[in-house]
Amino acid sequence: PVQDWDSGNVTASVGSSGQCVCHVFLPDTTFPADRVEHMQQVSKDLIVEVEIQKNKLVTYEDKLVIYLAELKDLEERLTIMQSSPDDYIKLDFELLRIELREFEALVSQLKNSLNSSSSLFDSLYIEIQNMTFIVNQLETYDKSNLEVIRYQFAKLQKKLEECQIDQDIIKPDVGNCNHTGILSIGNPLVVQLNAHLNSNYLYGGWGRDSKPIRGNENMHFYGAYSSPGAVYDFYFYSNYENLILRKAIKQYALPGEWQGTGNNYIVHSNAIYYQHNSPFSMTKLNVTSSEYEYRVISAASQSFSYAYSSNQNLDFAADETGLWVLYASTQNMGKIVIAKIDEKSFGIEAVWPTGMYKQSAGNAFMVCGVMYATRSVDITTEEIFYAYDTKTKQERNLSITFKKFQEKYTNLDYNPIDQKLYMYNNGYYVSYNVKFNKE
C-alpha cells in the first residue's frame, strides 16, 4: 500500500481509483532566464558605450590641450594689448590725420598754383573730408581699418597725379629721345612720408626699377637712414600702391662687410647699385640671387660731394641709353666726370670730364645721354642750371626752375620707364613729370 508522503515542495497520495498521484509545488518566483539574458545584453552594450566614451575622452583631452594652448596665446596677446593698448595705434591714427592735413594743403596749393577750379579738385576735397570723418569716428583700432584708409590714400594720390598730368599737359613718349632736351619740370607730387614714418630719416632714396625684368614691371624701392654716412637696408614693393601702404615684399639688410655710404643709389635691371664703404667702390647687389660684387674706380675721389649732403661721391643714374655713374676726380679738379657702365662686365666703358664743379651742384641726373645739374635758388625753388651732352661733348648753361616741397633733398634721379624725376626730399617721397622740347 502507498501512503501519503510529504517532502516540502513535493507530496504524494493515492487517488480515488487507486493510482499514485504526485504533487509538485513550484513557487511564483521562477528563475528569470529572460531577464538574465537581457541584463547580459545591457552589460555588453554598457561595455561598448564605456569604450566609446573612453575614446571620446582621449579625443577631448587632446582638443583640450589645443584649446588651452590657444587660450594661453590669446591671453598673452591680450596682455600685450592691455599693457600698451594705444601706444602705436594712436600714433598711426595721428599720422593719418597729419597726412590728411598735408594732403589737403597740397591740393589747395596745387589748385592755387594752377589757377584751376575743375570738378576733380572738388571731388578730392570731398574725399579728403570723408576720410577725415572716418578717421575721427573710428571706435575700434585694428589693422583692417588702417589698411582701408591706406587704400583710400592710394586712390587719392592716383587722382592727384592724374590731375597734375592733365594740368601740366605732359604726354610721356617713353623710350624715345626725339627731343632737344628738357623744356620744363612739372609741379611736385608729394606722395607721403617715408616707410619708417620717421621724419629724422632725411637721407635716402626711392623710386622704381629703371629697367625692370619681366614680372617686376611695377616694382618700387626705398632706403633711408638718419645719417648721410650709412646705407644699411633696402625695401622692395610689388607696385606703387603697396609702397604707399608700406607693404614690402622683400627687405635687404646689408651685412657689415657690404654696408654702403651716401644716398645716390638706384635699382636697375633687378639690381641695386650703391656706393661701398671699404674699399671705396661701386657695388652691385643682385636682387634675385642676393649676390654682391664691387668695382673700384681709381680716378674717383671721396673729397667731393653734392652741396646738400656729404658722402655722395658716387652717383648712379639711368636713362634711355643705359647705366651711368657720376663722380669727381682730383685730375679734373673736383669737377664731375660722367662714366658709362658696361652692365655685363660691370666695368667702365667710357668717361667724359665736364666743367661742372661738383660741390656747386645740389644733385645731377642723366636723360638721353645728357647730364643735368641742379642748384638751389631759394628755400622753395630749385634750378637746372647746367647740361653736358656726351654725344656732342658740349656743355651749356640753363635756367629751368621747379618747386621743392622742402629745402634740401638727397636723391634726385630720372627714370626712363615713365619719364619722371624721383626726389627724396627731407624724408618725403616726391616725384615730377618732365616735359621735353620737341622743336
From TrEMBL:
Pfam families noted in UniProt: OLF
Main location: secreted
InterPro entries, alphabetized: Olfac-like_dom, Olfactomedin-like_domain
Top-level taxon in the UniProt lineage: Eukaryota
Keyword Secreted included in the entry's annotation: yes
UniProt keyword annotations, A-Z: Coiled coil, Secreted
Sequence ranges assigned to domain Olfactomedin-like in this UniProt record: 176-438
The protein's name in its UniProt record: Olfactomedin-like domain-containing protein
Source species of the chain: Goodea atripinnis
